[in-house]
Amino acid sequence: MPADDASSSQTSATGNPLQNPSFLTAPQTIFPGLRAQGVLALGDRGVLITRSADIAAVLTHPEVFSSGMATQTGTQRPLIPLQIDPPRHREYRRILDPLFSPQRVKEMEGPVTDLARSLVDAIAAENEVDFVQRFSVPFPSQVFLALLGLPIVATKTRWRCCSEPPPRYTSTSKP
After folding, report:
1. Contact 23, 17 (CB under 8 A)
2. What integer best gives the mean pLDDT of the chain?
3. Domains of the chain: which residue ranges?
4. Has this prediction a pTM greater than 0.90?
């Protein structure tokens, strides 16, 4: 699984194929070429693995490919279950799996659709909107609350506490 440099027709000026404007507008046209190249180095950001066999190797060998450093969250605790490798990962999956069972997902379809529609309806008449702040940030936070059986709250200050990490204090700073 050697990492190759991506061809210039598929990469951006930074060498990252994911920053190529063509990839951003029509990824389906870029992926066959990326897949043909195998594993692609993305500089200090890691690698892009495009072949099924390589993906399977990464996912089935946690002793070589650890999830522990996959996402930098700025905290000392791992992001569960994403930053935990087997066998501990299975313990957390056992707890979380009922939240994502086919039956539970089907039950959530109506409320999640209603939530998405209400967020879009609230901004639909505006000429200009920050979609990230008005939809992309509140939507997953509120879906998460619903998954846990907690009420979906409408005010920005109440759901923001769930979508942003708490402030971090050092021994020399004051709360």
Report:
1. yes
2. 77
3. 3-60, 101-163
4. no
